[in-house]
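The aim of this short unit is practical: by the end, you should be able to scan a pair of folded records and say something sensible about each. We start with the first protein, listed as its amino acid sequence and then its structure tokens.
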Amino acid sequence: MSAVPVPRFAPRGTHWLVDCYGVDALLLRDAPTIEALLRDAARAAGAHVLSSHVHRFGDGAGVTGVVVLAESHLTIHTWPEHGFAAIDLFLCGETEPERAIAHLESAWPDARIVKTRHARGA
């Protein structure tokens, strides 16, 4: 089995996993508000939104959503019954993912937010 050659100029990006605890359950069920929040967070980072979709799973249940970006993606999964949201933010290029995270933090000021950063393709 031959080794796969590593590209001379590997793609690079920053991948953030953002866990949000203590978010109001009503907010975590509100698909239109979640979609607007994600789109605004992406724009705050300087990313270009290509499309988005958020799906609500029914009365009292959470949502799952994705914002497709020219620079990669932003996704969310919510569990209102636990006050929890898991956000995945992967950005490449000349973006500032920290600004997207700051936007999320300002929208949910009472939440405890745990952020993990991973360099991709470095």
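Turning to the second protein, read its sequence before its tokens, just as you did above.
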Amino acid sequence: MLSFSFKNRIAFNYILSSSILIAIVFLSIFTIVKYSVNQHINEEIQEELYKHLDDVSTDSNDTYLIQVDQWRAREHNSISINPVFVEFYDTNKQLIDKSPNLKNSNIHLLATNQNNKFTDTKLNEIPIRQIQTAIINKEQVVGYLVVAMSLEDFEIVQILKNILLISYPLILILLFLIARFLAGRSIKPVSTIIDTSSQITKDNLKSRIPLPFNKDELFVLSQNINNLLDRVENAIEREKQFTSDASHELRTPLAVMKGTMEVLIRKPRNQHEYEEKINFCISEVDRLNHMVDQLLLLARFENQKQNIKNETIFLNAIILDNLTRFSEKIESKKVKVFTSFSDDFYIQSDNYLVSIIISNLLSNAIKYSNSNGEIRIELSQNDDDITFSISDNGIGIGSEDVDKIFNSFYRSDVSNHAEIKGTGLGLSIVKRLCDLLNLEITVDSKLNEGTTFRLSFSLAKLK
């Protein structure tokens, strides 16, 4: 099978449909013209036939079957533009008389089963149309009348046929060339897309496809490809940054543990020193495990969107479950937790992912609260939305750092609060999940006064 270019395929499909339409139009024209011409010829022959039948008579004694004196005076004495040929035959099918314009030629009398039927024959190689009818006298056949007309002056049908047959392929060829030219101009943006996409590599994601002037399907295609390239570029940049940050964050505790081990083996230590350093290494391993778990969680969220559930969730229960999980940390830090639930609140979302969001926000509030501090959790309804807020009166966040807290591995003011351990991934996970669930999250914070996070959920429609 021949391999056509896209431009030629468009032109070919256009010509295929056009050829069928043109063929139908040409065939209709030819049929109508042929029918009209034939109908006109038949009417003229029929008129001549009736005219000459009126001129036929017999004598009282039937001595002569047919008298033909009157019709000789008609126009048949001279060759006209559209001559009519007439012949009379007796019952024995012998020629009695004929029109002078036949001269030495004769029209062939056909079999009686052809009576009153139009028949195309030839007279001296000239195409004619003839009709014959029986002459009836006293319910007996006394002869035959044959009327014919030349078809030479009606060759318009054959001429039209030849014109249509010749012009048909010429029109198709011309239409193909025009369609190919127009198709080439129409798909010019496609060529631009091909050229631009061939320049895009993993090291060069800055190129974009120029948008066509007309806002048609190719405009939408180019726009979608550019949007795709934007998402790919952003994803690769995030991956590079994430890989760089992750390698740095993982390398640091490993280097600390290696240094601690090297110090231990330089000289003998007492049991207390060994236990202290080993416990320190265990805490670093636990922190590494926690970091790896969060990194895997972040990686899994990249393809989580198609697996998101839409279910009715009892938000009060999720909050209380997480408070139970963190009860030991809350008690050890002597933090007071105040809850304000004016009603039972149900939301429409993914139970597992919402639980992770609440867990991370609560963990952060506990971590950054001062000893004997307070945490307030409130639920309120506004029209079809439910607002969840969690506030602490801890160390707070500086105004210059508020916009950065959702970045992976970012931790505000680490040097002044070295005692607060963390990976800097908790809020990044919260932000990622909020984007997946289409939740709006806002933060208000003042340094050394506290922080408040707010989430807006869609109210579930209970049956």
